[in-house]
Specification:
By secondary structure, the chain is of the alpha/beta class. The chain has 5 helices and 5 strands. Strands 2-1-3-4-5 form a 5-stranded mixed beta sheet. The structure holds zinc ion.
Length: 181
């Protein structure tokens, strides 16, 4: 009898390395005040596209990390199709990004944290298990889930603290005005 428990196999080191690269991209989004999500596209072990979430700064609703990384990878390969490529993203992709990945005929998508609000890889719906839509792209979730999720939780906690501080400052200014009225 084996002493081993039936649990998921640990992700291979390459997957961890690539997810860390995606986390690094997420850091660029944070630095610009964008929700920190990052992505990389990998072919034959080499990163050929990177991207981070930037819809606010670009005034572009499609500027999700995955789309930015897919665009860079497609330009690099000179092909709108990306067979044999894997995309690593820190947050479960939305329906738009999942659709784009299927159009690109990506081989595999690996994500970190689940997104219960807009996740289209099993959380809200699962586009990848729709046989009539998807023949190409395999799906894997939960790689560095804790780190990827924590980054987002920290970001939103910081934003809540900032807006609370701003409200308190506004109240303080009003009181100041009242005192001198
Ligand atoms: Zn998306």
């Amino acid at each position: 009898m084996s002493e081993l428990h039936a649990c998921d196999p640990a992700p291979e080191p390459a997957a961890l390395r690539h997810m860390r690269a995606a986390l690094e991209q997420a850091g660029h989004a944070w630095a610009l005040g964008e929700v920190p999500v990052g992505a990389v596209v990998v072919k034959d072990g080499e990163v050929i596209g990177v991207g981070y979430n930037s819809p606010s700064g670009r005034h572009d609703p499609t500027a999700h990390a995955e789309i930015m990384a897919l665009r860079q990878a497609a330009l690099r390969l000179g092909n709108y199709r990306l067979p044999g490529c894997t995309l690593y993203v820190t947050l479960e992709p939305c329906a738009m990004c999942s659709g784009a990945m299927m159009h690109a005929r990506l081989e595999r998508v690996v994500y970190g944290a689940a997104d219960p609000k807009t996740g289209a890889c099993g959380s809200v719906l699962n586009l990848f298990e729709q046989e009539r839509l998807n023949h190409h792209t395999a799906l894997e979730g939960g790689v560095l889930e804790q780190e990827c999720g924590q980054l987002l939780r920290d970001f939103f906690a910081m934003r809540r603290a900032q807006s609370k501080q701003q409200r308190q400052l506004a109240v303080g200014t009003d009181q100041h005005k009242d005192a001198h009225a």
